[in-house]
Write a structure and sequence with these properties.
Length: 153
Protein backbone atom coordinates (compact mmCIF):
# COMPACT_ATOMS: atom_id res chain seq x y z
CA UNK A 1 0.00 0.00 0.00
CA UNK A 2 2.87 2.37 0.86
CA UNK A 3 4.33 1.73 -2.62
CA UNK A 4 1.08 2.83 -4.29
CA UNK A 5 1.04 6.13 -2.38
CA UNK A 6 4.70 6.81 -3.19
CA UNK A 7 4.16 5.94 -6.84
CA UNK A 8 1.11 8.20 -7.05
CA UNK A 9 3.06 11.06 -5.42
CA UNK A 10 5.98 10.61 -7.83
CA UNK A 11 3.63 10.47 -10.82
CA UNK A 12 1.95 13.66 -9.60
CA UNK A 13 5.29 15.46 -9.35
CA UNK A 14 6.33 14.33 -12.83
CA UNK A 15 2.97 15.41 -14.22
CA UNK A 16 3.34 18.96 -12.82
CA UNK A 17 6.95 19.48 -14.00
CA UNK A 18 5.99 20.53 -17.56
CA UNK A 19 3.35 22.86 -16.13
CA UNK A 20 6.06 24.77 -14.23
CA UNK A 21 8.21 25.29 -17.33
CA UNK A 22 7.88 28.37 -19.52
CA UNK A 23 6.95 26.93 -22.93
CA UNK A 24 7.44 28.81 -26.21
CA UNK A 25 6.35 27.38 -29.57
CA UNK A 26 7.23 28.83 -32.97
CA UNK A 27 7.88 27.88 -36.60
CA UNK A 28 11.38 28.76 -37.83
CA UNK A 29 10.29 27.80 -41.36
CA UNK A 30 7.15 26.45 -42.96
CA UNK A 31 6.64 22.80 -41.99
CA UNK A 32 8.88 23.04 -38.91
CA UNK A 33 7.74 23.47 -35.32
CA UNK A 34 10.11 24.27 -32.46
CA UNK A 35 9.22 24.03 -28.79
CA UNK A 36 11.32 25.59 -26.04
CA UNK A 37 10.59 24.49 -22.46
CA UNK A 38 12.57 26.63 -20.01
CA UNK A 39 12.65 25.40 -16.41
CA UNK A 40 15.14 27.19 -14.16
CA UNK A 41 18.55 26.89 -15.83
CA UNK A 42 17.56 24.08 -18.20
CA UNK A 43 16.09 24.47 -21.68
CA UNK A 44 14.57 21.49 -23.49
CA UNK A 45 14.54 22.17 -27.24
CA UNK A 46 12.35 20.03 -29.49
CA UNK A 47 12.16 20.38 -33.28
CA UNK A 48 9.60 18.59 -35.46
CA UNK A 49 10.33 18.68 -39.20
CA UNK A 50 8.53 16.46 -41.73
CA UNK A 51 7.52 14.01 -39.00
CA UNK A 52 11.07 13.75 -37.63
CA UNK A 53 11.33 14.78 -33.98
CA UNK A 54 14.63 15.72 -32.34
CA UNK A 55 15.14 16.93 -28.77
CA UNK A 56 18.11 18.14 -26.79
CA UNK A 57 18.74 19.76 -23.44
CA UNK A 58 20.81 22.91 -23.00
CA UNK A 59 22.01 23.93 -19.54
CA UNK A 60 22.83 27.51 -18.58
CA UNK A 61 25.01 28.78 -15.76
CA UNK A 62 22.85 31.51 -14.29
CA UNK A 63 21.55 32.75 -10.97
CA UNK A 64 19.07 35.27 -12.36
CA UNK A 65 15.89 34.46 -14.26
CA UNK A 66 16.36 33.36 -17.87
CA UNK A 67 14.17 34.74 -20.65
CA UNK A 68 13.50 33.63 -24.22
CA UNK A 69 13.55 36.03 -27.19
CA UNK A 70 12.51 35.15 -30.76
CA UNK A 71 14.00 37.03 -33.71
CA UNK A 72 15.85 36.51 -36.99
CA UNK A 73 19.30 36.96 -35.48
CA UNK A 74 21.29 36.10 -38.63
CA UNK A 75 18.94 37.89 -41.05
CA UNK A 76 18.23 34.84 -43.26
CA UNK A 77 14.43 35.09 -43.07
CA UNK A 78 14.04 32.25 -40.53
CA UNK A 79 13.10 32.57 -36.87
CA UNK A 80 15.84 31.95 -34.33
CA UNK A 81 15.88 32.26 -30.56
CA UNK A 82 18.03 33.62 -27.77
CA UNK A 83 18.08 32.89 -24.06
CA UNK A 84 19.18 35.88 -22.02
CA UNK A 85 19.55 37.09 -18.47
CA UNK A 86 20.62 40.13 -16.52
CA UNK A 87 24.17 39.59 -15.27
CA UNK A 88 24.60 37.82 -11.94
CA UNK A 89 26.75 40.64 -10.53
CA UNK A 90 25.33 44.13 -10.15
CA UNK A 91 22.60 43.60 -12.78
CA UNK A 92 23.89 46.31 -15.11
CA UNK A 93 24.08 44.43 -18.41
CA UNK A 94 22.40 41.56 -20.28
CA UNK A 95 23.98 38.35 -21.52
CA UNK A 96 22.52 36.54 -24.55
CA UNK A 97 23.13 33.08 -25.98
CA UNK A 98 21.83 32.97 -29.56
CA UNK A 99 20.71 29.87 -31.47
CA UNK A 100 20.05 30.10 -35.22
CA UNK A 101 18.00 27.65 -37.26
CA UNK A 102 19.85 25.44 -39.76
CA UNK A 103 17.32 24.31 -42.41
CA UNK A 104 19.62 21.63 -43.89
CA UNK A 105 19.70 19.69 -40.62
CA UNK A 106 16.50 21.05 -38.99
CA UNK A 107 18.50 21.96 -35.87
CA UNK A 108 19.60 25.08 -34.04
CA UNK A 109 23.27 26.06 -33.84
CA UNK A 110 24.68 28.41 -31.22
CA UNK A 111 26.25 31.61 -32.56
CA UNK A 112 29.44 33.15 -31.24
CA UNK A 113 30.18 36.87 -31.51
CA UNK A 114 32.91 38.16 -33.81
CA UNK A 115 34.78 39.41 -30.72
CA UNK A 116 34.61 38.87 -26.99
CA UNK A 117 33.30 35.88 -25.07
CA UNK A 118 29.56 36.41 -25.50
CA UNK A 119 26.76 38.68 -26.63
CA UNK A 120 26.68 41.33 -23.87
CA UNK A 121 24.11 44.14 -24.10
CA UNK A 122 22.95 42.78 -27.47
CA UNK A 123 21.29 45.06 -30.01
CA UNK A 124 19.85 43.70 -33.25
CA UNK A 125 20.39 46.24 -36.04
CA UNK A 126 17.99 45.00 -38.73
CA UNK A 127 18.71 47.95 -41.03
CA UNK A 128 22.46 47.19 -41.26
CA UNK A 129 21.90 43.43 -40.67
CA UNK A 130 24.41 43.17 -37.83
CA UNK A 131 24.43 42.22 -34.18
CA UNK A 132 25.98 44.79 -31.87
CA UNK A 133 27.30 43.77 -28.47
CA UNK A 134 29.91 44.82 -25.93
CA UNK A 135 33.17 43.24 -24.90
CA UNK A 136 35.99 44.36 -22.64
CA UNK A 137 39.45 45.23 -23.90
CA UNK A 138 42.52 46.60 -22.15
CA UNK A 139 41.04 50.11 -21.89
CA UNK A 140 37.45 49.18 -20.96
CA UNK A 141 34.30 48.28 -22.90
CA UNK A 142 34.29 48.23 -26.71
CA UNK A 143 31.64 47.60 -29.33
CA UNK A 144 31.61 44.33 -31.25
CA UNK A 145 29.90 44.05 -34.65
CA UNK A 146 28.94 40.56 -35.81
CA UNK A 147 28.08 40.23 -39.52
CA UNK A 148 26.83 37.24 -41.48
CA UNK A 149 27.51 35.98 -44.98
CA UNK A 150 24.54 36.45 -47.28
CA UNK A 151 22.55 33.27 -47.63
CA UNK A 152 19.70 32.36 -49.95
CA UNK A 153 16.51 31.12 -48.38
Amino acid sequence: MHFKKSGALLLGLLWTFPALAEVTKFSPTQGTEATLALEGTTLVLSVINNGHNESRTITFEAENELRVQLDDFNFDGMKDFAVWQVDDGMGTYTIHRIFVYQPDTATFQELQPACGDGFVNLRVDSKRKVLLSAYWGMNGPKQCTTRFAKRKI
